[in-house]
Specification:
By secondary structure, the chain is α+β, with helices and mostly antiparallel strands. 39% of the residues lie in helices and 21% in strands. It has two domains: 131 residues, Dihydrodipicolinate Reductase, domain 2 (2-Layer Sandwich); 124 residues, no CATH class.
Length: 307
């Protein structure tokens, strides 16, 4: 029963609290916009909304999105039992209005009413060698999902080849086409390589990273930083009203691919980047915003890998 309640509390916190790194980026973006401009006004309202949601324990956005779970469990723990606990927590969170009913049958259009259904919530289970259980949750809204994109390189129209310059060209194209429809300023996860499915999975996993981290791959780190600067010069701005901040960050990951394929996937995340984590040991639970994916990108984690 405690496991169910820990998952329920994780949903509540994730739905109502924006992570500190995202809040800091939003504050910096607000300060970078001209006083009295539409862009600054939008960001001021966004920050007020974040404060009210946290204080009242209500959803940051009316679209509580698709719930994407990454669960890391010890050997001997049944993923099937964990799934039952997550489904219970999801239904209870919906009943308590932490989540809006968002699971609709693709053919009939009927809403299940409790955020569960075929393929929902999205669950990824990973067995690890630790005694603790760790769960990461991302709530990804529909507007940002609709402007996410996937490219197959080479792309002759964009003069994008199968290299980092080609990746750069398609990312700029995708974010320019999104304009304000993804509820920017956005956070962009990019997956390079893999097949069509794993390329997009890599892109979405990048959204679990902290905005303040650095990519341990020098080539990808340089491209991330370059793209942030170039995308923010597009002038799209918050919600498409123009301004200095089109994106808050770009995070890029890579996977091995088939020789015949070169996919680049863009997972657009709205300003309401709702991610949360819980670590559970016995009956004790610790809640924060440090996902296992984010932990891999910490400098100390990189030193451990190198040793």
């Amino acid at each position: 029963m405690l496991m169910k309640k820990h998952f329920l509390e994780l949903i509540r916190r994730t739905s109502s609290q924006i992570p500190p790194d995202v809040l800091s980026a939003l504050e910096a973006a607000r300060d970078a916009e001209a006083a009295g401009s539409p862009a600054r006004s939008v960001l001021e309202d966004v920050l007020k909304n974040c404060a009210l949601a946290a204080e009242s324990s209500r959803p940051v956005c009316q679209d509580t999105g698709t719930a994407i779970w990454m669960v890391y469990h010890p050997p001997g723990v049944s993923p099937r039992a964990l799934e039952r606990d997550i489904l219970w927590a999801t239904r209870e969170a919906t009943r308590r209005s932490y989540l809006r009913p968002n699971a609709v049958d693709a053919i009939t259009g009927k809403n299940s009413g409790d955020n569960t259904g075929l393929g929902l919530p999205v669950l990824h289970f990973h067995e690890w060698g630790k005694k603790s259980l760790h769960a990461d949750l991302l709530l990804k809204g529909g507007g940002s999902e609709n402007v996410s994109a996937q490219y197959s390189l080479p792309d002759s129209a964009l003069k994008a080849g199968r290299d980092l310059e080609g990746v750069r060209r398609v990312v700029i194209d995708g974010i320019f086409k999104a304009q304000g429809q993804g509820c920017g300023p956005g956070i962009i996860g990019v997956g390079v390589g893999g097949d069509r499915a794993t390329s997009m999975l890599e892109a979405k996993e990048q959204l679990f990273r902290l905005l303040t981290d650095r990519n341990p791959d020098p080539a990808l780190d340089g491209l991330e930083r370059r793209l942030v600067n170039e995308l923010n010069r597009l002038g799209v701005g918050p919600m498409g009203f123009g301004g200095a901040t089109t994106v808050l960050g770009v995070k890029i990951g890579k996977r091995h691919r088939l020789p015949a394929s070169f996919f680049v996937s863009l997972a657009y995340m709205c300003w309401a980047c709702r991610r949360g984590s819980v670590s559970i040991v016995g009956e004790r639970a610790r809640f924060d915003h440090m996902s296992q994916i984010a932990a891999r990108y910490r400098p100390d984690a990189e030193r451990k890998r190198a040793s």
